[in-house]
Amino acid sequence: MTEPDPFAAPPGFDDDDDIPTIDHAMMHSDVDFEAGMSSLPLVSLALMIACALVFAFQVVGGARIDVDRLSAIGALVPDRVRDGEVWRLVSATFLHGNFDHLLGNMLMLFILGMACEHAFGRPQFILLYVASGIFGSLCSLMGGRVSVGASGAIFGLAGALIVLFWRHRGRLHLRDRRIGVVLAGWAGYQFLLGLINPNVDNLAHLGGLLGGAALGLILRPAVLDGRDEVSTHPVSLAGMVLSCGGLGATALFFLPRLLR
Predict the structure, then answer these.
(1) CA 87 to CA 82: how far, in whole Å?
(2) Which of 25, 37, 106, 119 fits a 20 to 30 Å CA distance from 61?
């Protein structure tokens, strides 16, 4: 009588069929970018409401198309910024030249804001928006003209998303991967309009785009690293506090002029 082999496979066991394997999908699982995205981006909506209220006061105060009045209340005036009124780097992003200008910017803010709040979390989104607006304003100063509008900050949101989608293209699943191309095409189209229309501030657009893209390399993607983890991280909270402090300091100088 022979002893059973302790290392022998049990009856019915097929080496080729029953050994578990790790396939490509298990090693490279994608995160659905749109999953869990809120259709009510609260910070973006708050910014939109603020811009709309500022525009309403512009209309009431006669500063809708009056360059002198816009300059007095908070437009980006290079000479005044150099004289120390640095708060204009932010206040100018809440002013708009006309209703079409406001409507176009708010539409893009809603769309890109929804994606960015989801991608980076609200604390980092506030930093991204404010910092991109400042980058746009700083770049606009080189043009030497009076400027208003949120488009520099909005271009920053587009820049951050383009970098996010490119940098994490192996981890993020986009239901339509052409979205990065669409964003780049939209930015290019806006720059083309700026070449045709002298009233469009392409320098602000460029500054915002580059600033947002740079931040897109630095900010942690909450959609990948965990929303709670990223949003409660000390660095994220410090950036939010710094940005909110900048908005508050701007309001101290801006609102008294707007409400006169």
Answers:
(1) 11
(2) 106
* DSSP-based three-state secondary structure for 172: strand
- How do beta strands 172-173 and 31-32 pair? parallel
pLDDT in tens, 205-256: 999 999 999 999 999 999 999 999 999 999 999 999 999 999 999 999 999 9
Question: Which of 96, 101, 118, 205 is flagged as catalytic?
Answer: 205
- The catalytic position among 91, 151, 231, 243 is 151
Mean pLDDT of 65-82: 92
Confidence of residue 67 (pLDDT cuts 50, 70, 90): confident
Domains of the chain in start order, with CATH, are 37-258 (1.20.1540.10)
Report d(CA 51, CA 195) in Å as an integer: 26
The question of whether 24 is a catalytic residue gets the answer no
Does residue 205 have an active-site annotation? yes
Count of CA atoms in the C-beta half-sphere (13 A) of 44: 23
